[in-house]
């Protein structure tokens, strides 16, 4: 899946409140024909994430078969390494972020069992790779063997291992304590202890606590206040105080509010109107802000955000996993 | 292809490992990637030396070349750090080189992870290198809210115990003077003044994850608390609707187990007559909540109806929590 931005720009207007579903489906399907562009190989390090973004958006748009299931599975498996983890693209070293995307993609197309049939060592080996990245002393997670920590990795580990039914490979209570140490004086969470509160990291921390069944540790009123303050006059969300709005925060802020049952604290209509202005009604795709170039990342999070708001015509998204609710129901039996 | 590794005699002993895009395993890649020849050439030699675990000058140069073409290539950074340590290179020189790359790729985070790995070496850095903070200020001149740089700076404070280094607070002051709305700088200020100083557990609010209320100190220096509250007041007078110092003041008071009521008069300055700060209105609502519920509802209703109707449901919830009908 190409991550090349453009060619279109977000030229949606306030008066056009419709979602151009078929345009977005075409936009995502055609991403793969863009391999001759310079940006294509510069974004190679994100390729498996890109497949997850594109595929999930297509499922939410109600076009789950727009990408070939067989080719998708083949590509995912071609990114797996000997140690059980997955790289961003074939030949790349294994990393937490891509391993999580691989599991999410396989779960979405109902192909987790392919890991046993054709993968390297089955799901147990994937789980062991993820579990090996946990720091057993403080509960945090590295992205790869080299030790960078980020609450994104911690969330990813809980996300993927719960989908695989292998959460018991982790020290979940220690992970929970680590998340607590990332809380700040404003009630929100950062990338590691002491780092500034950031809406993206709030999503990962609250998501991790939800999967761990420990939402009781969150001061929901205070966090909800901080999150709802992210909505600015034009209806969109920013990720930190005094920063620019961005369509992707529709997801990060909105899902966290949904997990703590406070999504109704913001103005959903205004938010949806902002997101719709971020779409290119002609060539499809979403951008970070009206007027800017579209890309698959913002397309995915824009659509997921609209789904969260209950936008008509979209499949329901699960706020914890950022995958279709029907998929999560199948995987987790709920 | 003039200057390729393939026709360079210095590399003739190495057999390059071409990219395995999965096609040989029978998998039809969904995304076959068209790389520029130069990049394909360099990375095929990179794979070869990495597979052989070669720790050499030429490999170090090769990593530099690959990074210059694609700094987001996460694996090459790991390999580069290992070579630097194996060859016992001058890490100050490496930092100099990194400075240039960092200023060129402001959004890249692998660079900062690499810097942290180097700086973590107690053998090489027993004290903070003198130019380090200058360089961080250079980064902040480009983007004073750069998340990776601030996270690194917080780590640096803990790594070298810089809480009371005058330069830390001076830099925060300078950045807040330039932009009083810089929330990143406010966060750093809180961590300098009220973050935990023990080595373990590492760093966020005191008492986080212990079951006690996070951020509440057993003992505080009341002079520091008072002077920090003054800093927040001055900032608020400059820009009353700026959220950051209001949150900061709440954090400071909580650290000292002191009451919001201390600021009743100060907050009132922005509410009486013409409302100049919605945060002051909310502050008064919190102060009144304990014993003057009706007045608190008055404040919350003002926010709901006039100043912040976007969050109508939030304010309704707050009113409901006071036991009043919305």
Automatic annotation (TrEMBL), chain A:
Domain named Prenyltransferase alpha-alpha toroid: residues: 19-323
A GO MF term: Rab geranylgeranyltransferase activity
Gene Ontology terms: cellular component: Rab-protein geranylgeranyltransferase complex
Enzyme class: transferase
Keyword tags: Metal-binding, Prenyltransferase, Repeat, Transferase, Zinc
Substrates-to-products reaction catalysed: geranylgeranyl diphosphate + L-cysteinyl-[protein] = S-geranylgeranyl-L-cysteinyl-[protein] + diphosphate
Cofactor note: Binds 1 zinc ion per subunit.
Keyword Repeat: yes
Pfam families xref list: Prenyltrans
CDD domains: GGTase-II
UniProt cofactor(s): Zn(2+)
EC assignment: 2.5.1.60
Function: Catalyzes the transfer of a geranylgeranyl moiety from geranylgeranyl diphosphate to both cysteines of proteins with the C-terminal sequence -XXCC, -XCXC and -CCXX.
Homology family: Belongs to the protein prenyltransferase subunit beta family.
Protein name per UniProt: Geranylgeranyl transferase type-2 subunit beta
Source organism per UniProt: Penicillium cinerascens
TrEMBL record, chain B:
SUPFAM superfamilies: Protein prenylyltransferase
UniProt entry keywords in alphabetical sequence: Magnesium, Prenyltransferase, Repeat, Transferase
Keyword Repeat: yes
MF-aspect GO terms: CAAX-protein geranylgeranyltransferase activity; protein farnesyltransferase activity
Any Gene Ontology CC annotation: CAAX-protein geranylgeranyltransferase complex
Stretch list, region Disordered: 1-20
Family the entry assigns: Belongs to the protein prenyltransferase subunit alpha family.
Protein name: Protein farnesyltransferase/geranylgeranyltransferase type-1 subunit alpha
Organism of origin: Penicillium cinerascens
